[in-house]
Fold this sequence. Notes:
Blueprint: H1 3-16, E1 22-25, E2 31-36, E3 40-47, E4 50-56, E5 58-63, E6 66-71, E7 74-78, E8 82-89, E9 96-102, H2 105-114, H3 116-119, E10 131-135, H4 138-151, H5 154-159, H6 161-174, H7 179-183, H8 190-202, H9 211-218, H10 222-233, H11 237-256, H12 260-266, H13 272-283, H14 287-293
Antiparallel strand pairs: 1-2, 2-9, 3-8, 4-7, 4-9, 5-6, 5-8, 7-10
Helix pairs in contact: 1-4, 2-6, 4-6, 9-10, 11-12
Amino acid sequence: MNDCLKERLRRLRHEAGTTQPGFSATRLPGAQVFWSDHPIPRVPLYYDPGIAVIVSGRKTGFLNGATFVYGAGSYLAVGLPVCFDCETEATPDEPMVGIFLHAEQAMLRELAAGLAETDSASCATPVTLGVEPLPLSPVMLDAVSRLATQLCDHAQAQLLAPATLREVFFHALQDRHGRVLMAQTRPDRPEARIAALLRRLDRDPCRDRSVEQMAAETGMSPATFYRRFREAFGVSPLQYLKRRRLLRARSLLSDQGASVAEAAHATGYTSAAHFSRDFRATFGRPPSAEHRATGS
């Protein structure tokens, strides 16, 4: 893997002023550096649609009975807002280093329109999972490396990086295996309609919806919606929404220093005891421990 790219990401992390494992913002809103210098056991994570490029270290994902590994020289294409279990392999000598690039829907659709003829075949097969690990091609590595270099400079980050980010997604959509991202550019596809629904639900996380209500919003029958959802996400719609709420709550506790009561209320729980039971069952520790770990 490109040592220069690794050094650029190290510099971006240093500029962010954080020593904690996790995600750090860059000068471009659509790009985040992620880092860990120690192993992280299997834990639920949430990914927005986008691309996770791994520079060093390795991750193992678990979704719908499938296990997939992505490490140096590969990237994870995330076509849906998906929750899955993930295990991180990292050491101080070989830390987990990577960059996550968010997929902006309008940009994807515009790129896909220009690739409609050459990429139409890649959309013919239904997407069975919302994520795909893929090899990083030399041309895509070159674009990611240039993007990391541009993000280290304020002027380049403003004037050049947005076009380079677009170039990275151009190459990802051209990948003959890139069905996960390409499928989301077709609003008539079930996966794209479900993804649009989940984006709407994310803006109103406290509101409960039944499977029948969600199916109606996507224009599918409840049975078809349920089947398509399980195929892409590996869990039922209600299980997904519950896990998404708990992941949001964990972020409020650990990243924003919210109290347990505040995190429960913000994610739609009316009972603190119910929230604590669900949190412990999902993460193996009570929410109070997550809150104390932040030093708040």
